[in-house]
Specification:
Helix content is 40%, strand content 19%. The chain is an alpha/beta fold. Strands 2-1-3-4-5 form a 5-stranded mixed beta sheet, with helices on both faces.
Length: 167
């Protein structure tokens, strides 16, 4: 099969589609630094319409606030690339969709934009399940090698997000 993406992305996306379809689960993505890459990888797979409910590309802080209901105070206090904001993005994606599971991604793909406390390669993920107590939404920060290219960091982030979508 000819694909826009490397086999590592399409192979994992195929697992996400197959396993979520078998589980009867719909997924939603809230993407910032990946800019829709995770949704694009999923829609590369035949049958993805059974699984992908929708995707939000909320690259700006305003989009996170308007589309997902992330609190401006969270962004001001912790920054857009933070566990708190990823948590808010995942929660908002579930609230604004009919999906069963949401994954949010926010980060710094570079080459600029990093800081001493949040260097290039810092990406935060959150995963929320419908019906789950909001306190149980999981979020974690990963620090990818800052010497990777922007594309490589985005690809690594997409792979990590796809892993979180597996049942």
């Amino acid at each position: 099969m000819t694909s826009l993406f490397p086999a590592s992305l399409t192979d994992l996306a195929a697992r996400v589609v197959a396993e979520n379809a078998a589980a009867g689960r719909k997924v939603v993505l809230a993407e910032s630094c990946t800019g829709g890459l995770v949704c694009a990888a999923i829609t590369e797979i035949p049958g993805s319409s059974e699984v992908l409910e929708r995707g939000f590309v909320t690259y700006s802080n305003e989009a996170k606030i308007e589309s997902l209901g992330v609190s401006a105070e969270l962004i001001d206090t912790f920054g857009a690339v933070s566990v708190a904001v990823a948590w808010g993005m995942a929660r908002g994606a579930l609230q604004h969709s009919d999906a069963d599971v949401a994954v949010a991604i926010t980060g710094i793909a570079g080459p600029g934009g990093g800081s001493e406390t949040k260097p290039v390669g810092t990406v935060v993920f959150a995963c929320a399940l419908r019906g789950q107590n909001e306190n149980d939404i999981s979020a974690e920060q990963k620090n990818f090698d800052p010497s990777l290219s922007r594309s490589e960091i985005r690809q690594e982030a997409a792979l990590a997000a796809l892993e979180l979508l597996l049942p």
